[in-house]
Fold:
Amino acid sequence: SEEPKDPNIQFVEVQTLLFGENPPPLSAKTIQLKNHEPTKASQKKRGIIKSYAANTNQGIIRDYNEDRVSIILNILKPKNKQNIDVEWPQICFFGVFDGHAGRAAVQRLVEWIPQALRDAMAEGDPSAWPRLTPEAITNALLAVDERLLDASEAEGGWEDGATALLAIMHAGEPRLPVQLVQLGDSQAVLC
Structure:
């Protein structure tokens, strides 16, 4: 076997021991995942969005789904910006939330993150507005994290959490700007 070049990396042999009968091996061709909900897909074009679809599966470990999807096709212009003579573009929000070890955190994040980002747009840098600077996104999400910790403590300290992938799309000329945000170990592929 090849020795690692980094002395801090060590390869070890791993052996899995099962007690009792070994379960049949899982096969991607035969396993049936339970759907949390049927796939939801757009039926028509909505502004800059030609189509979208969302589907989640609960997997094979739990009898409930910890994942959530949030789609907001037009974030409204904040009230404190109504008097500004700047055309508000169509702004879309897509969020995929991967719940871990429970649903308490993910259920709150689906609601709180879009609201925090809209609030950040309301307070945002006028030269970048309505786009959010990386600092504004970071600050909004840190505030949500603090709020989440407070909610957990107030409710006895639940142990679950979530990762998230967010896409914020702004209708714009000459191209469509997209801001991607990755929280945790979730990843996105743009095609």
Residues 14-18 have pLDDT under 50 and may be disordered. The helical segments are 104-123, 134-154.
